[in-house]
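In the design runs reported in the main text, the only information available to the sequence generator was the tokenized backbone. The following block is the verbatim input for one such run; it is reproduced so that readers can re-run the procedure and compare outputs position by position.
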């Protein structure tokens, strides 16, 4: 039911704030990875699980959000999710080990995944149908701003405070949003009273969790565990294969599946999910690789890293409503998709040419290309997800498409971690072989040893300091080259899938169908 006056503004404030809070947390930790890893005594590669755990939880919960909202009642589920998110944020800040923070980060992702989709559905219900484009615009700005604000806020906190505060800032926001939700959000008629008529697909949910969870473990830890020489990797691989195959088979064989895979029989949606997977891979991987490169190699502070992301991404924020307005007039989304993917590929290719001495402004143009690329591809992908589907299938198609986007992101981070570790080892070996082959290394070591000896008066410790400095220099160069290789790999994904656009079709929708698709997008985002 549409609201008026003060209540409507409170709903707008509450839902948009909750959604932005969830989106901020998808990226706020990226600029703090180096500090969190140091604090917990683990590697950057290990601490990336803090990002991946959140993404896996989102992948699992997003397709189940509609069912859970129906079962428990949307208002109850929304408030419970907000409480889970807030409590988990506090526990993340209090974590003192890698395992602890990963577990709480996963729980935070379970609560956060529900906030995004349910917030938009509640917001849409607060507006009359004719005013829902306004609601969509408000929410769309939040969708773009959230991931952009994350690194900037995180960077400021890391510059002036310590990493636990990046989780603690959610607590007052979560408490206020929860109290406002209890007071101002109304229940829909019959909400939460249909439990007896709702079938719970326990088997499908368990198979999905086992398959995706174990697959992600294999992808994340494969390189570190020497792949199939590890019992854990072998066992997880078997569970992943049987879990995912079993999930697909079971969901196709029952009447009321947790995830309606039958909509993939539509060719347009099937090919759209491929593009969505790649878009998710690029989005998540780029905001993981770039901050680590900026801090580990280029020497940026966390705050400088966040600011370097913020300004060019605002270009994407301004483009979103323009693209939406153009597409609402019936312009085909496919040219936007092609241009968006080419722009993103250009961003990664240019990033792979960065000098190790580059300043913060070098990245403005490449990151602007990234922002424009994502803005020009996100709305077309949502449009294509429902092109060719029946109105009753919209929610299932969009929900599945969004799950694939999150899965692409989780896969991309795991791929980047493994690829960086492999290329780092290769580049380090080549650099050591190259530097020890001639006399230049001996001359450099001798010069450094003499320098440190003149400062300390201890030739033995001076020699050790010289070796450590050379080793750090080789490490930095090896990581630098491995990050550039990773940008190249990301760009190839975007180029390789472009020929598949010939399989995409555009079906012009009536105003009623467009309204129904917008409603489905809100409830399944």
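Verbatim output:
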């Amino acid at each position: 039911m549409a609201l008026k006056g003060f209540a409507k503004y409170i709903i707008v404030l509450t839902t948009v704030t909750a959604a932005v809070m969830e989106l901020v947390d998808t990226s706020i930790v990226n600029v703090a990875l180096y500090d969190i890893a140091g604090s917990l005594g683990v590697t950057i590669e290990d601490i990336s699980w803090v990002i991946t755990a959140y993404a896996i939880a989102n992948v699992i919960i997003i397709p189940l959000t509609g069912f859970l909202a129906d079962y428990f009642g949307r208002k109850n589920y929304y408030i419970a999710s907000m409480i889970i998110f807030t409590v988990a944020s506090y526990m993340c800040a209090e974590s003192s080990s890698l395992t602890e923070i990963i577990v709480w980060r996963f729980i935070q992702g379970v609560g956060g995944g529900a906030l995004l989709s349910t917030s938009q559905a509640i917001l849409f219900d607060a507006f009359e149908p004719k005013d829902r484009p306004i609601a969509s615009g408000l929410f769309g700005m939040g969708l773009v701003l959230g991931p952009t604000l994350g690194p900037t806020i995180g960077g400021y906190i890391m510059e002036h405070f310590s990493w636990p505060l990046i989780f603690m800032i959610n607590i007052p926001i979560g408490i206020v949003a929860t109290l406002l939700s209890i007071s101002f959000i109304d229940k829909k008629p019959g909400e939460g009273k249909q439990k007896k008529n709702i079938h719970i697909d326990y088997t499908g949910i368990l198979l999905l969790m086992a398959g995706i969870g174990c697959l992600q473990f294999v992808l994340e830890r494969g390189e570190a565990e020497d792949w199939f020489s590890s019992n854990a990797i072998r066992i997880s691989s078997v569970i992943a294969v049987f879990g995912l195959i079993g999930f697909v088979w079971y969901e196709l064989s029952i009447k009321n599946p947790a995830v309606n895979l039958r909509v993939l029989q539509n060719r347009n949606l099937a090919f759209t999910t491929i593009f969505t997977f790649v878009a998710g891979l690029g989005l998540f991987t780029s905001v993981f690789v770039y901050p680590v490169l900026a801090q580990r190699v280029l020497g940026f502070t966390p705050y400088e890293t966040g600011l370097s992301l913020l300004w060019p991404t605002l270009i994407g924020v301004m483009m979103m409503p323009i693209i939406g307005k153009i597409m609402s007039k019936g312009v085909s989304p496919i040219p936007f998709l092609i241009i968006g993917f080419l722009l993103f590929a250009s961003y990664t290719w240019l990033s792979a040419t960065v000098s190790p001495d580059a300043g913060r402004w070098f990245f403005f143009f490449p990151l602007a290309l990234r922002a424009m690329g994502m803005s020009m591809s996100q709305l077309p992908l949502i449009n294509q997800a429902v092109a060719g589907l029946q109105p009753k299938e919209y929610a299932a198609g969009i929900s599945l498409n969004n799950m694939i986007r999150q899965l692409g992101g989780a896969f991309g981070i795991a791929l980047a971690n493994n690829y960086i570790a492999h290329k780092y080892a290769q580049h380090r070996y080549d650099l050591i072989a190259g530097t020890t082959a001639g006399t230049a290394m001996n001359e450099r070591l001798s010069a450094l040893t003499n320098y440190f000896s003149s400062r300390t008066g201890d030739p033995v410790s001076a020699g050790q300091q010289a070796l450590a400095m050379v080793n750090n220099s080789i490490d930095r160069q090896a990581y630098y080259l491995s990050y550039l290789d990773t940008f190249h790999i990301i760009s190839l994904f975007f180029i390789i899938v472009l020929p598949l656009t010939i399989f995409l079709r555009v079906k012009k929708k009536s105003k009623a169908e467009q309204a129904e698709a917008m409603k489905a997008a809100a409830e399944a985002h």
